[in-house]
Write a structure and sequence with these properties.
Blueprint lengths: L4 H10 L10 H13 L10 H11 L13 H15 L9 H4 L15 E2 L2 E2 L21 H5 L2 H4 L1 H5 L2 E4 L13 E5 L3 H13 L9 E2 L22 E4 L21 H6 L6 H9 L3 E2 L11 E3 L3
Antiparallel strand pairs: 1-2, 3-4, 5-6, 6-8, 7-8
Helix pairs in contact: 1-3, 1-4, 9-11
Bound molecules: zinc ion (ZN).
Length: about 300
């Protein structure tokens, strides 16, 4: 990326990250989270456009001025932000997780048992929740079950979404509410979170992102993502950022030592197993594109 460091630093600072000027995977995950948290703008693309959009929003620009492109207006506003917030110091806002008093780092829950109340998380068979799907659709059958987002369009898909209330956990606003979940996915998500509570890992979760009308990997040439169906969700995105392993990194298996070094505050194995038990697939299992924040109700 050829953006000036200070643009990246402003975006990082606004998103509660250390302003290193290096647009690494963790930074990009934090910026996407910032995008999701702010309704005033929605940056469909990744990379430079997202960085500049966040910097523009943080610098007080609005409306059409948040276009993800550098220009004199952006330059002036961002320079003013630097002078005010970053002048001669690298002080940062506390990261999002430290602002969440309830958040406990994974490890506080070190090695919770995987067998409890007759439920064995290592057993790969799924529990079907009341009102849930007896069988989880595959990539081939999912459009027939959930609706075809490409054909139906945004509004028709939104009509299939529900809001869940009374969920265990203190994520997002801490009120046990999740918007933007496909009606058919609701019972499965509730079960996943109830299992997390039962197995003592629910407080790992401080953020869940659900419905989002966007393309896979934020790339408009890719199909719509499962987030556009309300059947995909992201847990603590910035602690579980996605990455493409190079040839020498293909061996980095989930929850190995190298994995834990990469994701020191990443989701625990017990948490992943709770979601799998409720029918979810996990993006951390994809060897060519590790996406450990991501769960989807697709086989
Ligand atoms: Zn996702």
């Amino acid at each position: 990326m050829k953006l000036p460091d200070y643009i990246i630093q402003v975006a990082q600072h606004a998103a509660g990250e250390e302003p290193t000027g290096n647009a690494d995977a963790r930074t990009m995950a934090a910026l996407r989270e910032y995008d999701h948290e702010h309704d005033e703008f929605d940056c469909a693309s990744d990379g430079e456009r997202l960085i500049v959009s966040v910097a523009q929003h943080a610098a007080g620009l609005s409306g059409k001025d948040i276009d993800g492109r550098m220009g004199p207006t952006t330059e002036a506003a961002v320079r003013a932000y630097v002078a005010k917030h970053l002048g001669g110091t690298t002080a940062t806002r506390p990261a999002f997780h430290t602002r969440m008093a309830v958040y406990r780092a994974p490890g506080a829950n070190a090695a919770p048992g995987l067998l409890k109340d007759g439920i064995d998380l290592r057993d790969p068979s799924m529990i079907v929740p009341d009102g849930g799907l007896a069988e989880i659709p595959t990539r081939k059958t999912m459009k027939g079950v959930y609706g075809d987002a490409d054909a139906l369009g945004k509004e028709a898909m939104q009509a299939r979404l529900a809001t869940l209330t009374g969920l265990p956990g203190r994520f997002n606003k801490g009120d046990g509410v999740l918007h933007g979940v496909h009606r058919l996915a609701g019972p499965h998500l509730r079960l996943a979170l109830e299992l997390c509570a039962r197995f003592g890992v629910i407080d790992e979760i401080y953020r869940i992102g659900t419905y989002n009308h966007r393309h896979m990997r934020h790339d408009p040439s890719m199909p719509l993502s499962f987030h556009a169906y309300g059947v995909g969700l992201d847990v603590n995105p910035r602690e579980n950022f996605a990455w493409v392993p190079g040839a020498s990194e293909k061996q980095v298996a989930p929850f190995s030592d190298a994995w834990r070094q990469k994701y020191p505050r990443g989701v625990s194995e017990a948490l992943v197993l709770c979601f799998k038990k409720a029918g979810y697939g996990w993006g951390g299992d994809w060897p060519g594109f590790r996406d450990p924040m991501h769960f989807e109700l697709v086989r």
